[in-house]
Amino acid sequence: MNGVIMCSDVFTLWTEKYRPKTLDEVVNQRDIIPRLKSFVSSKNVPHMLFAGPPGCGKTTVALALAYDLYGANWRQNILELNASDERGIQTVRDRIKDYARTMPIGDVPFKLIILDEADNMTADAQQALRRIMELYTRTCRFILIANYSSKIIEPIQSRCALFRFQPLSNEDIAERLKYIAGRENVKLTSGGLEAILYIAEGDMRRAINTLQAAASLGVVDESAVYRVVGKANPVEVREMMALALKGDFVSARGKLRELMINYGLSGVDIVKQMHREIFALDIPEKVKVLLADKIGEVNFRMVEGADEEIQLSYLLACFSLYGSELRGNK
Fold first, then answer.
1. 8 Å CB contact between 230 and 264
2. Pair (265, 144) in one structural domain
3. Strand, coil or helix: 284
4. What's the whole-model pTM score?
5. Confidence (pLDDT) at 3
6. What are the CA-CA distances from residue 93 to residues 113, 114, 220 (Å)?
7. Which member of 10, 76, 157, 312 has the lowest number of beta carbons within 10 Å of its beta carbon?
8. For 176-197, what is the mean pLDDT?
9. Is residue 121 situated within a structural domain?
10. Which residues constitute the domain of residue 281?
11. How would residue 6 be classed by pLDDT, with cut points 50, 70 and 90?
12. Could you tell me where the beta strands, DSSP code E, fall in 90-181?
C-alpha cells in the first residue's frame, strides 16, 4: 500500500480519521476550550461566531461541542451547511428556518445549526438570518464559522459570542503528525517533518493532507514532501537569490528555470516563496525593504497578466543590481 490507508477497501482521509471527537482532545486553543466546556456543563449555548485562519480547528471544535452536548445521538440535533451548499436567501428562508422551528431530541432544549464558511454567504442571506436568530433562539442556536469575521454583517456579530482562533503551534502540529505516522506505520524523517511544518504554516488540515500524500511515495522525507505539494525547497530558493545577489545573474536565471521545471511552479508561486525567504537572507535591513518592494511590484504585474519569464528575469536583475551596490559598499 506504500502508506496509503484503506478502510473497508475505501480510501479515507486522515483529516477525518484523526479528527478530535470531544473538546478534551482539542489542543492549542487554550483560551477558548474552557469557555465552551462551561457552556456544555450548563447546557446553555449562545449564538457563536468562530473566526480564524484555515485549518486551526474551528469546524472540529464546533462538532466536538455538539458531541459533548448531545452525546452519541448528536447528528440528530445539528444541521451543518458548508460553502458547497446553496446558502442564498432562499435557503435561509426555507431550509434553515424550517429546521430552526423543530424541537430538539433529548434533554438539551435546543438544536444547533453550524454554518461553515459563513463569510461566503450573500448579504441578503445574512440579513434574513439575523431575524431567524432572534425568533427561534428557544429551539435553535447558531454557530457561524468564518475565516474573516469582518465579512459577517455587524447585526449578526452583535448577536454572537465571538471566539477568535489562533494558528496551531509547530509543536502541537508536530506531535499530532508523529502520532498519526506511528499509527499508520509511516516512516517520517526529521527533514520531512520540518518540510511539512514549513508548508503548513499553522494549518493542521494541510499538514495532515501533506503527510498522507507524501506517504503514498514511501518514506516521508524532505524531497517527497516538496514533490507532492508542488513547492520548491526553500534552500534552493535561497540559493537562487544568493547567486543573483553575488552578481551571477545567468546562473541565478538557470536555477530559476530549473526550479520551475522540476517542481512545476508558476511565476506567482516562485515570487511568493522568494518573498517568504528574503527575510532569512544575511543582508542589510534596507536592502530587504527594497527587494520586498520589488517582489510586490512583480507579483502585481504577473497577477494582472504580464509575462512571467520577463518579470522574473527583471526581479533577478534587481537582485543583482542591489547586490552590486552591497559589494561596492564593502
1. yes
2. no
3. coil
4. 0.79
5. 43
6. 14, 16, 49
7. 10
8. 92
9. yes
10. 234-329
11. very low
12. 111-115, 140-146, 161-164
- The CATH number of the domain holding residue 269 is 1.20.272.10
In whole numbers, what is the pLDDT of the chain averaged over residues? 86
The predicted structure's pLDDT at residue 330: 54
- As for how many domains the chain has, the answer is 2
Q: Which amino acid is at 256?
A: L
Question: And the C-alpha cell for 211?
Answer: 503527510
Cell digits for 143? 454557530
Q: Do the domain assignments include residue 89? A: yes
Q: Report the chain's terminal Cα–Cα distance, integer Å.
A: 57
As a whole number of angstroms, the distance between CA 228 and CA 206 comes to: 12
Q: Which residue has the higher pLDDT, 194 or 327?
A: 194
The CA-atom distances, in angstroms, between 84 and each of 58, 67, 80, 113, 206 are: 17, 23, 11, 16, 19
Q: Residue 162: helix, strand or coil by DSSP? A: strand
Extract the C-alpha cell encoding 263.
Answer: 517542481
Q: Is residue 185 part of a domain?
A: no
Percentage of the chain lying above the pLDDT 70 cut: 94
Are 244 and 148 within one domain?
no
Above 90 in pLDDT, residue 314? Answer: yes
Q: If you ran DSSP here, which 8-state letter would residue 120 be given?
A: G
Query: 230-254, pLDDT tens digit by residue?
Result: 888 888 899 999 999 998 999 999 9
What are the cell numbers at 324? 552590486
Residue in this structure with the C-alpha cell 490507508, named with its chain if needed: 5
Q: Would you tell me the crossing angle of helices 190-200 and 204-215 to the nearest 10 degrees?
A: 140
